[in-house]
């Protein structure tokens, strides 16, 4: 009896160990467990009560909170219940390519306020899109394409001010396209959105003229294959960022607006299969236009338009049944890139002459059913010409151009490499590298390719290479890819079959498939130029390792060892309890990089410090008066900050992490090594650190006047006039320039904002808080590929979409900081982005660019109007959408110095005004260190492939 009691106690202790060691937030755990209970085919390692600690496939955690769920292409079956809202810290939800995921989206999804990416591509979801989705203010990517959603597009989507990617294509959505009306939002408010993908639905009514405006940054407008009526609105010509326009296969009528040729960046234009009337649109000036299709409309009869010959970038000219008449000039066939010309069912007459040169890429000229009565034959032109239905072919002629050839799709498939293919078993496939494996398969759909020659193998070879480059850059287990069967489907999409072969073994595990699926669903993969917007539909992967193990073998083994396992568990529980203390001591030493450091000999795990020292816990306890409340100058999610005085009377700020926010020892060591190497008058200095008695503390020089944010908001009582703001901007710029150009290795701050710019007693600016910073190693060329982190409103959109961090990402954040100095407003305030607000109000023809109403009154009253205008210009250069077009920080420093000279200031002298007169006003305000954390590695902005798109 006593023995069984002992065994029982051991078993209880064994269970308690696992319960105590659980890491995941209880709310997140209950949410995942609730979803698991209604989902089938979840990954096999979804067991136990600790998703973060046990590393559940597809679950990513930060600080023991679930921030990402990625479960693409694993044959998941079930519904998305309201339990998903329990995951309040979730940033990414990707369930793509699981056809078994059905039912409606729960309204509770609107409670997930931090969600940035909702990706449900190629599932079986149905019902209306819940209006509550408009509450997801951080949403950047909303991909609901290829489902069975019904009802109208919720107008509330227009409230998603940060939305970059909106894809609702290939559903059963009805009704009109919603626009704002003063009382409700609409899609016209999505000025930051680059992609409107609404094709293959049942949308009706007119395209609202209010949908488009000049503030939009839209590049893809895809409305093909709907039931839209009415005119093409002239406001479309205002969106000069557009690159792809698909309005084909609707019932649009009336004349095409004359200002269509304002869209000089458009590369693909589809207006075919409508009932458009009036004159044929004049596309003169659209010099990058590659693909144009206006077939099957009712345009007025018109002579061959001059732009047929002037648009040198054309690859495909598709103008069937468009009322064109007259003789074709031979010069139109000289375009170097021209591949296909289809002018069937028009009134083209006279002699057909392809010219002496002709494009060396030209494959097809289809002129069926016109009035051509002669042809000038020239040798050397290997172009397929079709003149069936013309007078020239009505005389019993048998030339090749008087017969309709049998058309077939390209038979391209990825060639075998320099190897000998091996015979594979019936359920495996030979890869391009001659290995037998179980590939992940699916279909790529390119919605508007700029080319029409699908027989050009080099085009697809570049696509294969780009795919492999992306897989390798993300560290995914891919050996090779194979493309096959390129074809143009009924939607005029280029369709390609894709096989992705595993590396290292002949099958993928769940994490491999999830990673590949997310790369494609998240649009992390960017196809080569010319392929245009795409989407991927993956097949369920049926060859996971566990599925190929013999179930009968498992039963036999289980029966044979079942009893032994039970006994061993009891035995191990006792051994575990006996050795627990010893193991904890060993583990503690292993996780403590300072464990073998002897401060007296500078040996062991000592961090490589430059000018910083290690403090004992007792020293800092004494210096902060036992961490008393009177010395508490602020707090945050990481813990508290205390004012302290060292034995040498130096005033410091001690940042003390609370247990739940502490980093691992190695990460903490890495951070203090980074901080200790930074020495510049415009960068906050690290005095030292403490890593003992379970504590992590950083000791900084004490900065008297707090954050720039506090002064701009009036908390400190310090009045920042225009001259002081210029000096602060220059100081912050010099600090950042030092990090980029003079630190060794260079440092990208990654979190520049007004709460991380501190002001000393002379109001000199100092850059602070390096908790998110990244070193730029010698081996890295121009960028660091890393998880996206930063703060909403300051984050570089290019970095967000590509995961490629560069110094120019800091420049973008600094540009937003300049707008704060100009306006004293938050970057995002009541859903409005300060950069956009300034751009809307700006009029360069007026004094101070007509910004008096949005500038801080202190700035607006400046006597130096020209310096304010130049400052605005610099801010806009810094926040340019493309990083290559932003200045470097050294260029920013020079520009601010020029602006200061324009304002009558000497940029080479520091501020002569101390802050002594403000000391009384500033007493009691929260110190700079109270808002942000050097220990907080989870960002305020969504994590990605990210990117993007």
From TrEMBL:
Coiled-coil residues: none
Listed InterPro entries: Kinase-like_dom_sf (IPR011009), Leu-rich_rpt (IPR001611), LRR_dom_sf (IPR032675), Prot_kinase_dom (IPR000719), Protein_kinase_ATP_BS (IPR017441), Ser-Thr/Tyr_kinase_cat_dom (IPR001245), Ser/Thr_kinase_AS (IPR008271)
SUPFAM superfamilies for the chain: L domain-like, Protein kinase-like (PK-like)
Signal sequence coordinates: 1-22
GO molecular function terms listed in the Swiss-Prot or TrEMBL record: ATP binding; protein serine/threonine kinase activity
Sorted UniProt keywords: ATP-binding, Glycoprotein, Kinase, Leucine-rich repeat, Membrane, Nucleotide-binding, Receptor, Repeat, Serine/threonine-protein kinase, Signal, Transferase, Transmembrane, Transmembrane helix
Domain Protein kinase: 627-900
Source organism of the structure: Buddleja alternifolia
Topology with respect to the bilayer: Single-pass type I membrane protein
Keyword Plastid among record annotations: no
Subcellular location field: Membrane
Residues that span the membrane, as ranges: 555-579
Entry protein name: non-specific serine/threonine protein kinase
EC number in record: 2.7.11.1
Residues given in the record as ATP binding sites: 655
Any one of the GO CC terms: membrane
């Amino acid at each position: 009896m006593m023995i069984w009691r002992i065994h029982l106690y051991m078993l209880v202790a064994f269970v308690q160990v696992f319960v105590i060691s659980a890491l995941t937030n209880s709310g997140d755990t209950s949410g995942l467990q609730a979803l698991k209970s209604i989902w089938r085919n979840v990954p096999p390692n979804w067991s136990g009560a600790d998703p973060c600690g046990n590393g559940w496939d597809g679950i990513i955690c930060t600080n023991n909170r679930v921030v990402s769920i990625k479960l693409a292409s694993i044959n998941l079956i079930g519904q998305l219940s309201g339990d998903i809202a329990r995951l309040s810290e979730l940033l990414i939800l990707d369930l793509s390519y699981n056809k078994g995921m059905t039912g409606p989206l729960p309204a509770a999804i609107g409670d997930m306020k931090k969600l940035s990416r909702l990706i449900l591509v190629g599932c079986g979801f149905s019902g209306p899109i819940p209006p509550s989705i408009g509450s997801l203010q951080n949403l950047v990517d909303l991909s609901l394409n290829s489902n069975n959603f019904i009802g109208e597009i919720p107008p509330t989507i227009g409230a998603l001010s940060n939305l970059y990617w909106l894809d609702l294509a290939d559903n059963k959505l009805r009704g009109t396209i919603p626009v704002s009306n003063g009382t409700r939002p609409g899609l016209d408010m999505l000025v930051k959105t680059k992609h409107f993908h609404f094709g293959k639905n049942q949308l009706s009514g007119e395209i609202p003229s209010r949908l488009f405006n000049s503030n939009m940054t839209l590049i893809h407008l895809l409305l093909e294959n709907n039931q839209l009526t009415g005119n093409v609105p002239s406001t479309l010509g205002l969106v000069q960022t557009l690159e792809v326009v698909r309005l084909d296969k609707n019932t649009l009528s009336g004349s095409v607006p004359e200002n269509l040729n304002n869209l000089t960046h458009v590369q693909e234009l589809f207006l075919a299969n409508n009932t458009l009337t009036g004159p044929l649109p004049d596309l003169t000036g659209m010099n990058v236009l590659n693909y144009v299709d206006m077939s099957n409309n009712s345009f007025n009869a018109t002579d061959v338009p001059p732009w047929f010959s002037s648009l040198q970038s054309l690859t495909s000219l598709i103008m069937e049944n468009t009322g064109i008449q007259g003789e074709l000039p031979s010069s139109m066939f000289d375009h170097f890139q021209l591949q296909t010309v289809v002018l069937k069912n028009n009134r083209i007459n006279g002699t057909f002459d392809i010219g002496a040169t002709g494009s060396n890429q030209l494959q097809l000229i289809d002129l069926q059913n016109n009035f051509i009565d002669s042809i000038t034959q020239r040798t050397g032109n290997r172009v397929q010409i079709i003149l069936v239905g013309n007078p020239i072919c009505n005389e019993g002629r048998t030339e090749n151009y008087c017969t309709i050839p049998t058309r077939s799709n390209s038979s391209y498939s990825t060639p075998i490499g320099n190897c000998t293919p091996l015979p594979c078993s019936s359920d495996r496939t030979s890869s391009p590298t001659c290995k037998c494996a179980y590939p992940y398969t699916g279909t790529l759909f390119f919605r508007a390719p700029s080319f029409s020659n699908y027989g050009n193998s080099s085009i697809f070879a570049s696509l294969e290479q780009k795919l492999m480059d992306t897989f390798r850059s993300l560290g995914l287990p891919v050996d090779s890819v194979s493309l096959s069967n390129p074809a143009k489907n009924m939607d005029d999409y280029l369709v390609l079959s894709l096989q992705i072969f595993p590396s290292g073994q002949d099958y993928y595990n769940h994490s491999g498939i999830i990673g590949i699926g997310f790369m494609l669903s998240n649009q992390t993969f960017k196809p080569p130029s010319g392929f245009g917007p795409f989407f991927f539909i993956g097949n369920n992967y049926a060859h996971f390792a566990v599925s190929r193990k013999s179930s009968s073998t498992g039963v036999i083994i289980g029966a044979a060892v079942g009893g032994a396992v039970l006994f061993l568990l009891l035995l191990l529980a006792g051994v575990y309890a006996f050795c627990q203390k010893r193991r904890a001591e060993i583990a503690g030493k292993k996780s403590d990089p300072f464990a073998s450091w002897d401060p007296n000999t500078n040996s062991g795990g000592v961090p490589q410090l430059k000018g910083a020292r290690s403090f004992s816990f007792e020293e800092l306890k004494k210096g902060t008066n036992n961490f008393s409340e009177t010395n508490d100058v602020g707090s945050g999610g990481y813990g508290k900050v205390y004012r302290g005085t060292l034995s040498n009377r130096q005033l410091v700020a001690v940042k003390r992490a609370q247990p739940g926010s502490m980093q691992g020892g190695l990460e903490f060591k890495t951070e203090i090594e980074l901080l200790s190497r930074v020495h510049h008058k415009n960068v906050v200095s690290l005095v030292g650190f403490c890593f003992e008695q379970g504590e992590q503390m950083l000791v900084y020089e004490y900065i008297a006047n707090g954050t720039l944010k506090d002064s701009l908001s009036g908390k400190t009582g310090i009045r920042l006039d225009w001259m002081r703001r210029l000096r602060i901007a220059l100081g912050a710029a010099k600090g950042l320039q030092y990090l980029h150009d003079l630190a060794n290795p260079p440092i990208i701050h990654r979190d520049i904002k007004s709460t991380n710019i501190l002001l000393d007693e002379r109001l000199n600016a100092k850059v602070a808080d390096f908790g998110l910073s990244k070193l730029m190693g010698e081996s890295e060329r121009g960028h660091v590929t890393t998880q996206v982190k930063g703060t909403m409103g300051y984050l570089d959109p290019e970095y967000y979409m590509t995961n490629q961090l560069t110094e120019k990402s800091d420049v973008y954040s600094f540009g937003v900081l300049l707008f704060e100095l100009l306006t004293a407003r938050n970057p995002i305030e009541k859903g409005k982005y300060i950069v956009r607000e300034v751009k809307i109000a700006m009029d360069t023809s007026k004094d101070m660019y007509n910004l008096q109403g949005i500038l801080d009154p202190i700035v607006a009253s400046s006597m130096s109007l020209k310096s304010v205008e130049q400052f605005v210009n610099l801010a806009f250069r810094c926040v340019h959408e493309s990083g290559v077009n932003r200045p470097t920080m050294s260029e920013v420093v020079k520009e601010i110095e020029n602006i200061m000279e324009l304002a009558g200031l000497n940029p080479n002298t520091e501020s002569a005004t101390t802050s002594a007169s403000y000391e009384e006003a500033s007493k009691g305000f929260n110190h700079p260190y109270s808002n942000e954390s050097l220990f907080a590695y989870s960002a305020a902005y969504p994590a990605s492939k990210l990117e993007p798109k």
